[in-house]
Design goal:
Lipid A biosynthesis lauroyl acyltransferase; LipA_acyltrans; 15% strand; two-stranded antiparallel sheet; seven-stranded mixed beta sheet; alpha/beta; globular; 319 residues; transferase; single chain
Length: 319
């Protein structure tokens, strides 16, 4: 079995490469049409993770009707499938001379000023919009970044995907064993991009997300506080046609500011989680509702949260 694993992995790698070649040979308009059809198939016929998606949408948008939930779910599937096509086409279609055709960034001056400064910068995003294009587009502008991601079990696919990410300067740090490299990155004034909407288990920081308690990784906030790093929450929306994006910043805080009042892991975690929630509400059909974001906190955590005083002002994203 061990001897056959490299053969199985390489066969899977060749199958994926062949599939990507087919996508690259198709116009993006055709890719979008097929994404819509396949999205309908995944939702109505195959019912892939349908129960999880329905439960998540009821939690996030209890005021909306089942019909509205279905429209969001169908839009999500079309978005996810089209996202794969955009990633496949990106190296051939977006470059340093035509990026303005594909990307708008209303807060460009604010972010460029921060990225050019000698201090570290942390950008917290989520599974919203085309999150894979965020680091790719930053690198295209001459701002390299580092992202923490799980190493794929298939080494051929892992190397190929990381080659795509690193083509413009987006470097991947393994999920485990990177603490020393992250510390060095922040000390050197680098840029760290993190996903802040992943379930972190019971021994995590529990904050409100769409009105329900959700587990978040303490390390996300800890990097900001320990590295004294300006931190932004943002995403890359698709705007209109495929391969047209808008990089949006929901909020920016700086631990060095005199009025910085988010000096603890719970307060900072609440701030960036609320920022991500606000971004999701703008385009809920571009969010990844497939994963189980909400799970019951342990009983002890429930008691601690019930005893904590509420502070709505501290949870609002800073401008």
């Amino acid at each position: 079995m061990t001897r056959s694993k490299p053969i199985i992995d390489y066969t899977a790698y060749l199958a994926v490469r062949t599939f990507v070649c087919i996508i690259q040979a198709m116009p993006l308009s055709t890719c979008q049409a097929w994404a819509r059809r396949l999205g309908w198939l995944f939702w109505h016929v195959l019912k892939v993770r349908r129960g999880t998606v329905e439960e998540n949408l009821k939690t996030a948008f209890p005021e909306r009707s089942p019909r509205e939930h279905e429209q969001i779910a169908l839009g999500m599937w079309e978005h996810l499938l089209l996202m794969v096509c955009e990633i496949a086409h990106a190296p051939r279609k977006i470059n340093r001379t035509n990026w303005r055709t594909h990307l708008a960034m209303p807060q460009m001056e604010l972010m460029v000023r921060r990225l050019l400064a000698p201090r570290p910068v942390i950008i917290i995003s989520g599974h919203l919009g085309n999150f894979e294009m965020g680091g790719y587009l930053l690198g295209l502008h001459g701002f390299p970044s580092h992202t923490i991601a799980r190493t794929l079990d298939n080494p051929y696919l892992d190397r190929w995907i990381n080659d795509f990410r690193g083509a413009t300067g987006q470097f991947i740090l393994p999920k485990h064993g990177s603490s020393q490299r992250i510390e060095e990155l922040l000390k050197s004034g680098g840029t760290l991009v993190l996903l802040g909407d992943q379930h972190a288990g019971e021994a995590a920081c529990w904050v409100d997300f769409f009105g329900r308690s959700a587990s978040t990784h303490k390390a996300v906030a800890l990097f900001t506080l320990s590295g004294n790093a300006p931190t932004a929450t943002g995403c890359v929306y698709r705007k209109g046609a495929p391969m047209h994006f808008e990089m949006e910043v929901a909020g920016l805080v700086d631990p060095a500011d005199a009025d910085f009042n988010l000096g603890s892991i719970p307060l900072l975690s609440t701030w960036y989680t609320r920022g991500l929630e606000n971004l999701i509400r703008v385009a809920p059909d571009q969010y990844w509702w497939l994963h189980r974001r909400w799970r019951e906190p342990p009983a002890r955590q429930k008691k601690l949260r019930a005893a904590e005083p509420s502070d709505p002002a501290a949870a609002r994203p800073a401008a």
